[in-house]
Amino acid sequence: MAHSVAVIVGSLRKESFSLKIAKAFAKIAPPSLKFDIVTLEGLSFFNQDLEATPPADWVAFRERIQKSDAVLFVTPEYNRSTSGVLKNAIDVGSRPYGKSSFLGKPTGIIANSPGALGGVAAAMHLKSILPGISGPIMQQPEIYLNGVGDAFDDKGNLTKEALEKVMKAYIDAFAAWVERLQK
Ligand SMILES: Cc1cc2nc3c(=O)[nH]c(=O)nc-3n(C[C@H](O)[C@H](O)[C@H](O)COP(=O)(O)O)c2cc1C
Q1: Could you give the CA distance from residue 168 to residue 55 in angstroms, rounded to a whole number?
Q2: Does the structure show a pLDDT above 80 at 183?
Q3: What does residue 130 show for φ and ψ, rounded to 5 degrees?
Q4: What DSSP state is assigned to residue 134?
Q5: What pLDDT score was predicted for residue 42?
Q6: CB 134 within 8 A of CB 101
């Protein structure tokens, strides 16, 4: 049976490389993974005052995560960390206290950047934020996609073979790992 994966995209930009990467993963993933690409437009700021009567957009986001079998974060790197919108989404999903929507879900972290380091600092920050509120985080293989700025054609198709190769290896490993954990 296929496993559903909520793929959370950490950039709001229309031409976001993170979004293009999420879509490229959906194309190359094995059939055992069913992707739900979750973009974060319209997700309001977390405000603890609203916890008793959460806004509809928080509830919808949490439910979407809860009904997935696994989670992938596709993060850009902003100032050596993840983006603010992704951190906000994690805060929203992590509440109510003790009932994080991410709990128990096998989790993967995919960092990217047009720069040389592939967003490794963003991934490291996510690795320190998530453990208390997520499920197990896949440790190997790691993936830091660098040089993504010229990796897509004008229709958003991935054209850089070197990237596609590591992405395919990553998503196949993720699928096998999710399968093992679900047993
Ligand atoms: C506020 C800001 C901070 C950034 N900081 C970094 C950084 O620390 N490291 C990096 O590799 N790229 C950095 N960048 C460049 C982003 O990697 C680049 O804008 C990328 O396209 C953003 O991801 P997206 O294409 O998914 O929107 C930064 C961009 C912005 C707007």
Answers
A1: 37
A2: no
A3: -80, -30
A4: S
A5: 96
A6: no
Which CATH number among 3.50.50.60, 3.40.50.620, 3.40.50.360, 3.40.50.720 corresponds to the domain 3-43+52-182? 3.40.50.360
- Residue 115: per-residue pLDDT: 98
Q: What is the pLDDT of residues 128-154, one digit of tens each?
A: 999 999 999 999 999 999 999 999 999
| 8 phi, psi to nearest 5 deg | -95, 125
37 CA to centre of ligand 1 in angstroms: 20
* CA distance linking residue 148 with residue 136, whole number of Å: 27
Domain ranges of the chain: 3-43+52-182
What's the rounded Cα separation, in Å, for the pair 62 and 133? 13
Residue 182 has pLDDT above 90, yes or no: no
pTM above 0.85, yes or no: yes
Distance between CA atoms of residues 92 and 68, nearest Å: 16
The alpha carbon of 9 and the centre of ligand 1 are apart by a number of angstroms equal to 14
Backbone angles phi, psi at 164, to 5 degrees: -60, -35
Tokens encoding 183: 């047993």
d(CA 33, CA 93): 22
Question: What are 158's two structure tokens?
Answer: 């991935």
Ligand 1 binding pocket includes 39 (Cβ within 6 Å): no
Q: Indicate whether 106 pLDDT > 80.
A: yes
Ligand 1 site, residue 150, Cβ cutoff 6 A:
no
